[in-house]
Design goal:
heterodimer, A: 259 residues, Sulfite Oxidase, Chain A, domain 2, five-stranded mixed sheet, five-stranded antiparallel sheet, 10 strands, 24% strand, B: 277 residues, Fumarate Reductase Cytochrome B subunit, two-stranded antiparallel sheet, 9 helices, globular
C-alpha cells in the first residue's frame, strides 16, 4: 500500500475514460447490443436480488411526521399533460375519468374517482427521491393497489402491473413518448404501494399527477407514474413500447430503481 | 561506496494486498468520474431529510447568465466563487457548455445520468467485493493489526511530531526502519480502509430508497438522505485528497522502488552499515 505510481494510475483512469467513451458511443446507437454495456447492466439484477433478499416482501419505507413535510414539493417531468382528452377530463373535474384495469385479470374493470375514494384508503408521509438527486417529503392518500387487484382478480400468468399515463414527455409520431411505468407483483402488493388521489390533505394537483398517481415507496421518483389512465397486467414487458418496462427505462435507466 | 553491496530486496506486500490495491484503484477511479456525472444531474448539496429547489443548499455549482458569456460559479454558504472554465461553465468539443463538473472529469464525458449510474453501480459492486476480500483476508492474516494499527509508542505526540517534521523535510525512513510503515502511513492507510471507504459505502446505501426500508437506522445515523448525499460527496473529496498526497509521497520517496514493491512485492532497502562492519 505504500507505493504505487502515477503513470500506472493515470493509465488506469485514462483506460476507464476511454472505455467509457467507447461504450457510450455504441450505447447511443443501440444500447442493448453493446457487449460491455451488457456487463455494466448486470449490476441491476445483482442490486434487485440483493435488495429483495434483504427486504423481504413487506418491509416498509420510512414514514415521516407532518413536521417533516417539504414546504415546497418540486413539480417534475410533465406539469400539465398536453392533450385535448386530458384537458376535457380536467375541465369536468375528472367526473368522466375512469381508471381501466385490464390485461391478465379475471374481471376487467373501470373505476371512477368517486369509486376509488369509497374504497379502503391509506395515508402515508414518505420521501420522494428523484434519480437526479433531490428529495421531497409529502403526505399521500390513496387506495392500496392490492385492493384494486383483489377486486379484479389476477390470472396465473400475470407478472407485472403496467401503468399507462395521460402525459407525453416527448412528442413522437408513433406515440413512444407517452409515459408509462411497470412494477412486479412484489411491489404491486406491498402495503405502501397506493394509487394516490390526495396530497398534503388536498386533492392531488395537476402538477403532481391529477387525478391519480402511483406511489411505490421503495423506489425512485420515475417509478411514481402520474396521470394514470390504465393499469394493464402482463406476463412480459417485451411487447410494450421499447420493451424495457417504462418511459425512462426505454431511455437507459434501470427498471429496478431501488438505488 | 560500499553501500552498493548492502542493498537487499525484502518481501513488502503480499499478493492479496497488491491485487486488491490495484483493483481498488481502478474501481475508485471509475466511481469518482461516474459519481461526478451523477452529481452533475443535480449539483446542489443539502443538509437533512429533504432538499430540492426552494430548499437551502449549502453548496451548489451553477452558471450565471447575465450580459455576455455565461459565468461559472461555486456557491459555498454565502460565498460565491467564480469558477468559469472548470466548474459551472466549461468547454466540451470546442463549445461552451453549462455543467457543474467539466467533461474531462465525468464518465461518460457528455451529460448522461443513466449511463453514469450504470458505471457507478457496476463498479460499486466490484469495489465492495474487492474491499470485502481485502478486509477478510487481512483481518485473518493479521496484516491489519500487525502492520496498520499504530503502537502506543508511535502515537506519542513527540514521535508523531518527529515524523511530521521528517516528512515535511522529505526525509523518509531508511534501512531497517523502512521495513515497516511509519506512523503517518499507518494512520492514513487505516483512516482510508477503516473509515473513509466504509463511509462511502454506507452513505451511498443511505441514498437508496430500497436500502432505507432494510436499514432505516442509516437515515438516523447520517441525519437524512440529503445529509448522506452531502457526506458521500465530502468523503469522496477526502479520498481524492488522500490519493493526491499518496501519489506525491510515492514519487518523492523513490518511485521505482515503490512501484516494484506494489507490483512484484519486492522492496529494496539499504541495510545499515553497522551490521556488516
Amino acid at each position: 500500500m505504500t507505493d504505487k505510481h502515477i503513470t500506472r494510475r493515470r493509465f488506469l483512469l485514462g483506460g476507464a475514460l476511454g472505455a467509457g467513451a467507447a461504450a457510450l458511443g455504441g450505447c447511443d446507437l443501440k444500447r442493448t447490443d453493446d457487449a460491455f454495456g451488457g456487463v455494466l447492466r448486470s449490476a441491476e439484477s445483482l442490486t434487485l436480488g440483493a435488495q429483495r433478499r434483504l427486504q423481504g416482501k413487506h418491509t416498509l419505507a420510512r414514514e415521516y411526521t407532518e413536521a417533516d413535510i417539504s414546504p415546497h414539493f418540486r413539480v417534475n417531468g410533465t406539469s400539465m399533460p398536453d392533450s385535448p382528452i386530458y384537458a376535457d377530463l380536467l375541465g369536468k373535474r375528472f367526473v368522466d375519468w375512469r381508471l381501466q384495469v385490464d390485461g391478465l385479470v379475471a374481471r376487467p374493470m373501470a373505476f371512477s374517482l368517486a369509486a376509488l375514494k369509497l374504497m379502503p384508503a391509506r395515508t402515508q408521509i414518505t420521501r420522494h427521491d428523484c434519480v437526479e438527486g433531490w428529495s421531497a417529503i409529502g403526505k399521500w392518500t390513496g387506495v392500496p393497489l392490492a385492493e384494486i387487484l383483489r377486486a379484479t382478480g389476477l390470472l396465473p400468468a400475470a407478472r407485472y402491473a403496467v401503468f399507462h399515463c395521460a402525459d407525453e414527455l416527448e412528442t413522437t409520431l408513433d406515440g413512444s413518448g407517452r409515459y408509462y411505468e411497470s412494477i412486479d407483483l412484489v411491489d404491486a402488493f406491498h402495503p405502501q404501494t397506493i394509487l394516490a388521489y390526495g396530497m398534503n390533505g388536498k386533492d392531488l394537483g395537476v402538477g403532481h399527477g391529477a387525478p391519480l398517481r402511483l406511489r411505490v415507496e421503495r423506489q425512485l421518483g420515475y417509478k411514481q407514474a402520474k396521470y394514470l389512465m390504465r393499469i394493464q397486467l402482463v406476463d412480459s414487458l417485451k411487447d410494450l413500447w421499447g420493451g424495457n418496462g417504462g418511459y425512462w427505462e426505454d431511455r437507459g435507466y434501470e427498471w429496478y430503481a431501488g438505488i | 561506496m560500499k553501500a552498493e553491496k548492502n542493498i537487499v530486496l525484502v518481501r513488502r506486500h503480499s499478493l492479496v494486498t497488491r491485487l486488491t490495491h490495484w483493483i481498488n484503484a481502478a474501481c475508485l477511479g471509475v466511481l469518482l468520474l461516474s459519481g461526478l456525472q451523477i452529481f452533475n444531474a443535480w449539483p446542489n448539496l443539502y443538509w437533512g431529510q429533504y432538499g430540492a429547489d426552494g430548499d437551502h443548499a449549502f453548496l451548489s455549482i451553477g452558471a450565471l447568465r447575465g450580459n455576455g458569456a455565461p459565468r461559472g460559479v461555486l456557491r459555498l454558504g454565502d460565498a460565491a466563487i467564480p469558477t468559469t472554465g472548470v466548474l459551472g461553465v466549461s468547454k466540451l468539443g470546442g463549445d461552451t457548455v453549462e455543467r457543474a463538473f467539466p467533461a474531462w472529469l465525468t464518465l461518460p464525458s457528455f451529460q448522461d445520468l443513466a449511463e453514469g449510474r450504470r458505471w457507478h453501480f457496476f463498479f460499486a459492486w466490484c469495489f465492495v467485493a474487492n474491499g470485502a476480500a481485502y478486509l477478510l483476508y487481512h483481518l485473518f492474516s493479521g496484516h491489519l493489526w500487525r502492520d496498520l494499527v499504530p503502537t502506543r509508542r508511535e502515537l506519542a505526540p513527540a514521535h508523531l511530531w518527529h515524523e511530521i517534521v521528517a516528512h515535511a523535510r522529505l526525509r523518509f525512513p531508511q534501512g531497517e526502519q523502512a521495513r515497516h510503515y511509519n506512523v503517518l502511513q499507518k494512520l492514513s492507510y487505516l483512516g482510508v480502509v477503516a473509515l473513509l471507504l466504509p463511509l462511502m459505502v454506507l452513505t451511498g446505501l443511505t441514498m437508496s430508497p430500497g436500502m432505507n426500508a432494510v436499514a432505516p437506522f442509516l437515515l438516523d445515523l447520517f441525519g437524512g438522505r440529503q445529509s448522506a448525499r452531502a457526506i458521500h460527496f465530502i468523503t469522496a473529496s477526502l479520498v481524492v485528497l488522500f490519493v493526491l498526497v499518496h501519489l506525491a509521497m510515492v514519487l518523492l520517496s523513490g518511485v521505482w522502488n515503490n512501484l516494484r514493491s506494489m507490483i512484484t512485492g519486492r522492496y529494496a532497502i539499504r541495510e545499515s552499515d553497522i551490521h556488516h562492519d
